[in-house]
Each structure stands twice: as structure tokens, then as C-alpha cells.
Amino acid sequence: MKSLASTEWNDYLLMFMTFSGNKSFYDFVVKYKIDKLPIVEKYKHVAVQWYMNSLRARVDGTEFNWDPPSTSELVLLAHKVKG
């Protein structure tokens, strides 16, 4: 997240907020049940990596044909990892 008051915004950065924004990202991480993870783990998560790559492609006007990760598969994987 960037502060509106302390960060210089250019047109490119503003496009990220236009296409997404904090609410959209928050809703996404809640959907994947990763909203409570520590920030470093959250941003390394496969779902967030997909989100960021998808968003960057939209902003850059490039093709992005990857399907989003399945929420059910990720939840099952998380339970297996935790034991």
C-alpha cells in the first residue's frame, strides 16, 4: 500500500489503483483466507502472486491467460502443510 500523502504518484501507478485498489485486494485475500497471514507470507502466497501478475498485465495492456488458483485446492494444501 502507498500513502496518498507521502508518495509521489505517476500515471502508471494510478492505473494500478484504477484497476484494483485496496478494497479489491482485501476482498481477494479474504476469499483465499490469507488475510490474517503476516505481510511477508501474504505477498509470497501463490494467490497473491497470481493477483499481482494479473493486475500488472491489465495495467500494461498485455495478455494474461492463467486461471486463478482454486480456493478449495489451496485450503486443502494449507491444511496438509499444517499437519
What can you tell me about this protein's structure?
The protein has 83 residues and is an all-alpha fold. It has one domain. 63% of the residues lie in helices and 0% in strands. The protein has helices at 11-19, 22-31, 39-44, 46-60, 71-82. Helix 1 (11-19) crosses helix 4. The longest helix is centred in the middle third of the chain and has 15 residues, at 46-60. The chain is globular, with a radius of gyration of 14 Å. Residues 79-83 have low confidence and may be disordered.
Set out the fold topology.
Blueprint: H1 11-19, H2 22-31, H3 39-44, H4 46-60, H5 71-82
Helix pairs in contact: 1-4
Largest sheet: none
Number of helices: 5
> Which blocks of ≥5 consecutive residues have pLDDT under 50?
79-83
Tell me, rounded to a whole number, the average pLDDT: 83
Run of helices and strands: HHHHH
Shape: globular
- Going by helix content, strand content and strand pairing, the class is mainly alpha
Number of domains: 1
Cα distance spanning the termini: 33 Å
What gyration radius follows from the Cα positions, in whole Å?
Answer: 14 Å
Strand content range: under 5%
Per DSSP E runs of 2 or more residues, the count of β-strands stands at: 0
Specify the helix fraction band: 55-70%
